[in-house]
């Protein structure tokens, strides 16, 4: 009975870690998309502004 309990606990811990990583990756994906959009807007402002750096 103890071995079954240990196996259940280990599986529960692994599922909790995988679920947490999935949530973290989902959050990081949204952050990366937002940062990418901000970088694109900044690039467009630089191109439209026509500033030439020499």
TrEMBL record:
Keyword Transmembrane helix: yes
Keywords: Membrane, Transmembrane, Transmembrane helix
Annotated transmembrane regions: 30-48
Source species, domain of life: Bacteria
Full protein name: DUF2207 domain-containing protein
